[in-house]
Amino acid sequence: MGKDSFTVILGAVIRSKRKDLKASQEGFAATIDLHRTYYGAVERGERNVSIKNLLKIAEGLNCPLSKIIQETEQAFAD
């Protein structure tokens, strides 16, 4: 996965955690007060997401932002 961009890997990590919660993209986006198309673009790695929105996502996932970043960094290094 080392050739993928950081944002693509970040999106994949976020998507995996959302799916673990058995939440749809649309439902999850509504829960964290983000537009569904914006949130979908984050999961696809098409958006350079702000820290503010990353915090919203992490809170919605009940996961520390540091854990999301750590998992992303590990996958990026592979």
UniProtKB/TrEMBL annotation:
GO molecular function: DNA binding; DNA-binding transcription factor activity
HTH cro/C1-type domain mapped to chain residues: 14-68
GO CC aspect terms: cytosol
Species name: Pseudodesulfovibrio senegalensis
Protein name: Helix-turn-helix transcriptional regulator
Keyword DNA damage: no
Keyword Transcription regulation included in the entry's annotation: yes
Keyword line: DNA-binding, Transcription, Transcription regulation
Domain of life, per lineage: Bacteria
Pfam families attached to this UniProt entry: HTH_3
InterPro entries: Cro/C1-type_HTH, Lambda_DNA-bd_dom_sf, TransReg_Diox_bact_type
